[in-house]
Please model this.
Amino acid sequence: MSALKPRPGILEIEPYKPGESLVDGVARVIKLSSNESPLGPSPRAIKALEAAAKEQHLYPDGTCEAIRTALGRRHGLDPARIVCGAGSDELISLLARAYAGPGDEVLYSEYGFLMYPISAMGVGARPVAAPEKGLKADVDSLLAKLTKRTRILFLANPNNPTGSYLAKDEVARLVRALPLDVLLVIDAAYAEYVRRNDYSSGAELVDAHDNVVMMRTFSKIYGLAGQRIGWAYCPPAVADALNRLRNPFNVTASAQAAALAALEDIQHVDRARASNDAVLPWVTAELERLGLEVAPSVGNFVLVRFPEGAKSADAANDFLAKRGIIPRKMGAYKLPRSLRITIGTEADMRFVVATLAEFMGARQ
Ligand SMILES: Cc1ncc(COP(=O)(O)O)c(C=O)c1O
Model:
């Protein structure tokens, strides 16, 4: 036994398990376990990465100036209030470290992204889950869980793994009711996929309030999950805190170069969105036809609930895996009867639907 002891709470963390990517004995794997883009990165980003390879002896720009300027121009935001991170995962940890600690509470919605409770426990704070209604965050339920100890409220909008979202009026109502010393972090990792008039990523709320942050990522629609780059749009004081806390070179030079090129390739993003627009409703309808319950999703994935018994989610997972299809098991989210399936290419999703039809015993 080691005499060393991590700080209280650390050993209670259930390590985050990334989506699987390999299946024994299967040559071609269709990885649908991490909500990655089936189109891959923009060709322009690939070129930028090749060019960046020659400069790897140099430290990156620690301020991420070029990418912050480009993001500011694209989204109409003040670059000085943007902080980049090694994926939005790093920003979640930094926000937890900056604003919560032992004795504090970090609030999130029942089926919210797992990194929220993990980052809370990492700083010795207590994660508090507010019950959802119909697999959707509920503003009143979140407000009912506020205490004097609440320091941060993490809200994924849209949420992973449920695919549900809160309309902008609801998020605005949440902000209005929130005490000024509670930080609302709106995690809009899937914002680019949403096709709803009543949705907003929340940038305007950051402009109007000192206690709201919005986070985005290059890991999803931009197809750069391997590079690890995300960003937060913050009130000035929050940007200042994060800039003091983060490592000086927290975003690699290649990530910055790839993100800059990806941001310029609007057509590639449009293609990824159009593909999702076409395939998501088709997959949803086909799986429902098989008698499965599919939570309505505005993201690039669906949460599918299976019956109990022989046609369970675990059995479906094994059946799919044997054929090289890897969905995400949902036990860690306390949704053991469901699988989350990323929306892949149309061809891959036809194979997924046909395989699940076979699993469910439906004739094709
Ligand atoms: C809601 C949500 N936030 C953040 C992340 C982390 O993304 P990144 O790759 O930017 O760290 C994910 C990744 O799945 C996510 O689903």
About this structure: The pocket of pyridoxal-5'-phosphate is lined by residues 35, 87-89, 113, 156, 160, 187, 189, 217, 219, 225, 230 (CB under 6 Å). The chain has twelve helices and 13 strands. The longest helix spans residues 266-289.
